[in-house]
Amino acid sequence: MASHTRRKLKLPDQIPLNPLLDLWEQQEPEGPDATRIYEFYRSLAEGKFVTTRCITCGKIHFPPLIVCPNCNGEDLEWIEIPEEGELYAFTELKLGAPVIVEDYAPFVIAVARFGNYPENGVQISGMMFDVSYEDLKVGDRVTWEIMEIVGPGDKTRYWYCFTRV
Amino acid sequence: MIRMREVAIVGAGITRFGVREASWRDLVQEAGKAVFDDVPNLDKKDIDSLFVGAAQPERWVFQTHVAPYVAELLGINVSRVISRTEVACASGQAAIRYAWLAVATGLSDVAMVVGVEKMNSKFMSVSQSSMINVGNREFDGVNGFTAPPFFAMVAQRHMHEFGTTSEQLAMVRVKNSYYGARNPYAQFQKEVTVEKVLGSRMVAPPLTLFDCSAITDGACALILTSEERAREFTDTPVWILGGVQHVDSAHTTNQFGDLSHWVGLRKAAKDLYSMLKISPDDIDMAEVHDCFTISEILEYEELGFCKKGEGGKFIEEGESYIGGKVAVNPGGGLLSNGHPLGATGVRQAWEMVMQFRGEVPEERYVNGAEIGIAHNLSGMAQLHHIMAYSIYKRKDLKQEV
Ligand SMILES: [Zn+2]
């Protein structure tokens, strides 16, 4: 027993960040990570912010969908979200930011309404950078802006944020 | 139509809540031991069903299939119904509701409920990131839109529309800390002042650290049985009068509508009151889901304790203290107890049992209480659950009240 050496299982030096903590959809047009709303991300890459509207019942969706939950219709069209909207509510995340965007905290998180919500518009959340809570007020005009999400590795994905007009 | 049996809670046990030096497994065993000690006449063989409320064990402790694991840890064999419920922050009350339904319909004779969550670890930013997927991860969570920013915006809109103030928000914490200071199981047992709440670190304006409930470890367990067997186990059964749930088709910001109106809670409360033929005035005490101070203010309003928009005034005038219009969170609420997601709803029922039995310190005892409700919400306040508890059976309610 004295000469017995214990067996060791050596683990990797670093365990990589759980990929589930990557919050963005993979935005792939094909393969196992494919999304059937790929058109949404393709449009973002082209500088357009779009969503789906049901041709049958007229309901506007956000997020964009492949079946209308209002009427089960599959006949959907892509429409552009208006460029300017109104700040409905906002705060600034000073503690407890998700680990993947921790380096950008504190940042403003806002809810803005574009178009005539709820009948004919959307209410969406978005980040705001280079502005603080004290600079903003309910009702301020905002616009959406496309941003690039770079990484992990060579991957580039697309998303949006809000900017004050 | 199925004849619904009367159902009682005949046993209740809880662990200390807080940042516990204990694993998920330890917490389950502690709560199980506590409830078995509470019901010495219970033979484990009597238990035929198990309902486990657990929100994210697969994220926080990397364990799935948790209900069978709980059965093993507690040494019980389940022959009727075994289930784990997950509706985020309200997983615990959902477990109670399904246990109640199983016993009420005769599917189960003796059911056990365990609510448990282990949330603290050395990797807190990763743990907190797991909360982001309670909302729509890819369309809201991705923007950092987790619970504190959401409830901060609810507060901002409530202030904007109704003139509610940060001081009024702070008063909710002051009240709940007063009761929490008299609850030996609570995470925070220190009284705080309005100044202390306002001066604490800003989390997401207008909410400070003390406006928020904490990340907590804890577990709580109950034994439910029917009218036929309740007296075998206890002289002081607490009867379940009924329960309601309401959720609108609303998981993403686009479907929220107005943040300062919790229509789902208003509808759930209306259903509960008409089911039991009672009004808000009949309620003596309420354990409500004060995950944030602003939540309790909206809950006064939507539960009908005061008019819409007057929740701030309600706390300012002391109406939610014991001795006011209705005793709200005499157990200290989530703000004092902490909020181990799956355990919270079960802890609320535990508080009702202790209150009705008179087993709480005098300063937080709601003397003479006949009807109590527990409200447990989940997500971005889309899903609302309310259970009603009483010293009376449902069939005796009308004569007595
Ligand atoms: Zn449609």
Automatic annotation (TrEMBL), chain A:
It comes from the Archaea. Residues 44-77 form the ChsH2 rubredoxin-like zinc ribbon domain. InterPro entries: ChsH2_C, ChsH2_Znr, NA-bd_OB-fold, Thioester_dehydratase-like. PANTHER family: BLR3430 PROTEIN (PTHR34075). Coiled coil: none annotated. SUPFAM superfamilies: Nucleic acid-binding proteins. This is Uncharacterized protein. Residues 78-143 form the ChsH2 C-terminal OB-fold domain. It comes from Geoglobus acetivorans.
